[in-house]
Amino acid sequence: MADAKVKMASYQSSISMIDGIVTPLGHYVEDLGGTAGLGTDQAPGTRNYNMFREMRTASLLAKVTHQNPTRMPAWKALELATIGGAKVLQLDDRIGSLEVGKLADVITVDLRHPNLSPTVSRPFRNFVPNLVYSASGAEVDNVFINGRRVMDNGRLLLVDESALTSEAEADWRRAGSMLVRHADEGRL
Known about the structure:
- The protein is an alpha+beta fold.
- It is 42% helix and 13% strand.
- The radius of gyration is 18 Å and the shape is globular.
């Protein structure tokens, strides 16, 4: 598949939790040189869409699967979550990295957040490992989409979060899926 240039979109948290399997992401990317990106899906299954969690899960599962702590290092997981996803979507000429001429979707992260401490730059740098292994997303303090600020100091500017959450739950319930029934029966 790698030789045929097949691209993998990997949803590590969802697949491992719902199906109880580990996708061959580490093997596909590191051994075969395949193109892959991280994504999220199944909010009712994994309870959220969180790219920080996906990076951590992908890195840890690769290490455990291959019984090798050097597999899927933090920097590789971050790469799969950014430019890797853009490559899978064949949009890497427009998104996925900060370059002149590309659309600029940017987050800033409060590195003083307790779970990202200590942050050091000498004799080594731990910024990326801290983001991949310790961030939850609560550390994100500003978000810019195509240069437009949509979050300012942790506060969403364009969305009423409470109304959105209520609407999403109502839509989910109306779908009438088996997950809704299981949730109502106390199984989830």
